[in-house]
Amino acid sequence: MIRIAAATLLAIFVASAALAQPRTLSTQSGPVRVDVVAQGLQHPWGMAFLPDGRLLVTERPGRLRTVAQDGAVSQPIGGVPRVFARGQGGLLDVALSPEFASDRLVYLTFAEPGSGTSAGTALARGRLNDAATALEDVRVLFRQEPKLEGGNHFGSRIAFARDGRIFVTLGERFTFERAQDTSTHLGAVVRIERDGSVPKDNPFVDRPGARPEIWSYGHRNVQGAAIHPETGALWTHEMGPMGGDEVNIALPGRNYGWPLVSWGKHYDGRAIPSPATRPDLAASLHHWTPSIAPSGMAFYVADLFPGWRGSLLAGALAGQALVRLTLDGERVTGEERIAMGARIRDVAVASDGAVWLVTDENNGRVLRLTPQK
Ligand SMILES: [Ca+2]
Is 237 among the residues known to form the active site? Predict the structure, then answer.
């Protein structure tokens, strides 16, 4: 009995000690303080800030929680759809409606179970109750077709365009060539209205046989998306095979080339033609070889880190870093990798300009970055 109590006390002590001690990282823009806001989350995947400053965070096995600024982690929020929690599948991204203050709508992407052991990415939305304990009136707005076997490449990120349309970034479910087949949603970015209907000006609405939700295609696995703060364009990044992770601007109707071209190689070492050989396919702005496995994206436009203003921030899983790209318009002019020592799954900027990260681990952490005073 005493031994159990001592062990429990020790565990509590270790946890609080770990939470209490911020780290300092040196960066090109000066020292950065890293606080562990919360830990013990299981593979946190997506983040969105509520207007009251609490963070909504998904856990891949299928839970949605809030994390308060002081680190308090809520019980799982009710009403989350059942997910296919295998491989890379599960509960993925979370985003708030641009009119959340009045409509309280929360959007989620997830791997939706199909018949047998098949699954496919889907977008759902529900109304968060006032106590933030449950989603109500949950509705699936979009389903990637077809659903397939296997646990790879579900994407997915949610981004709201300035006109209120919803972009959802998808993966090709590890089917390679089918990313080129516009009769499927595999390897596509899709664009839908807030009620799930298809915008009349989507690029393939009049193409026989094509899926009308498609905005762009020829993507491999897109796990980063953000709307550019000045141009309003959709920027994405995607994971390459061995090498060849890309940053792209997803334009309507364009083909981003996978698997016809890549800066990477197939896993068995076979070469893939370089993008330069196919000027008819959309070129990337930037690529990473070897792969960093990018996940999560945010443009930094806040004041707290003056040296980061105008930068594109991305998490890196294999790269175990926060990656900061400096930009001149649509040109990437530099890259800084801030080593975090953990797989970074998502990046979000709080209203005070602090940068929040989640680590994709069994004991996943929520980290807050602020300038070291
Ligand atoms: Ca490409």
Answer: no
